[in-house]
# Entry
Amino acid sequence: MSGFLTPFRQAVRRDLLLAARHKTEVITALFFFVIVVNLLPLGIGPDADLLRKIAPGALWIGALLATLLGLQRLFAPDHQDGTLEQMALSPQSFTLLIAGKIMAHWLVSGLPVVLIAPLLGVQFDLPARSLGILTLSLLLGTPILSLIGAVGAALTLGVRGSGVLLSLLILPLYIPALIFGAGAVEADLAGLGFEGHLSLLGALLLACTVFAPWVTTVALRVALE
Amino acid sequence: MSTSLINWFKFASPASFYPLAGRMVPWFAAATLLLAAAGLWVGLAVAPTDAQQGEGYRIIFVHVPASWMSMFIYCVMAFWAALGLSFNTRLSGMMTSALAPTGALFAFLSLWTGSLWGKPMWGAWWVWDARLTSQLILFFLYLGFIALQAAIDDPRRADKAGAILALVGVVNVPIIYFSVQWWNTLHQGASVSMTKAPSMAHTMLLGIRLMALAFWAYTITMALIRVRCIILERELTSEWVKKNAME
# Structure
């Protein structure tokens, strides 16, 4: 079993090591998230009731944008220096290697967002219970963003204007995750229970975990042809 | 045994499909004109005035078929995409990209006519109804597909990347539809419902059906014309184009 997952672990370790040596990229994405979320009250006004209402949506949209920021760099550097081609040719499972890269992307760009979200939620005056649900929804949801985003990153690899194109392709596909993620808090506040939303988010995560790495490798092979 | 296989794939070759498409275009164009004329006549002249909505309801004769077609064309695109990926046929990718602009047009037409209808009926150009929102997202999916294909220079890669995107999209469309529907029912009570339409007169239904058939024929006509252009563009250097198609 451990032998089967070796390529996955190696890919995760390699990408984490690369991220650790380019710390600014990680920190920039995180600050981008913090700044975008903090701009919203400045645009809307400091009314606490209103802010409490928009907080889940604001944090979720911030998380979407922060994920997009890192996605452009998911395959591009490896594509440029030929590493990606070597991965595709290697006898190890290409899908597992790619799944490892996606996992590393989430650890680097998604997890910090999840960890800092409660702090930003406090700025929006969210009660403790909502903070917990919001963080849980982001914990389940941000991997979905990385997984779906990887498909888009693979499709736009090495294409003219890939950054803008990536957002055009991926953002509509993020809608279900956004609805269930941000909706969990509101459903709880409305007394409807948040479990349903989180279950659906979990189902989406499972479906994406199964299919997204595979579709990504198909798209990457098209790009590498 | 093998002849039946060959027949299946005969028109998968651009060289043999090009003249066939050329022969089919006038027929489908004529069908479009006849069906649209009949549908508009039934819709605008024969169908009775709606008791609740007055004359304004007549926009559904364009709106409903356009919405149907926009969804149907995406499914057809996904079908060609799957075919192209599994059999590696060049024509499938060309069909997919030939259909996309018409699909986007119908999605836009459906949104536009919907908002024209919504202003007098609901008093607003736009409401965050589940159907409207998912139609808008479908429009975005079409735009994404067209943009992706336009950005890739190599046509074979554009076909394959577009095919993957179309298949990912078609899996997501129902998920998006149901999530938006749920999102809407959570946010507000059902202020506006398009599903509880009053029972329709037979002539209204006939008008809608005729217009749907007209749009269908229009889609086929435009897709064939467009696919002929794409074939010429891609095969410009090949012998058969120089011999047959350039006169």
Remarks:
- The interface with chain A takes residues 137, 140-141, 143-144, 147-148, 151-153, 156-157, 160-161, 164-165, 168-169, 172, 175-176, 179-180, 182-183, 186 of chain B (CB under 8 Å).
- The first helix of chain B runs from residue 2 to 10.
- Chain B is about 80% helix and 0% strand.
- Chain B has one domain: 31-46+57-188+199-242.
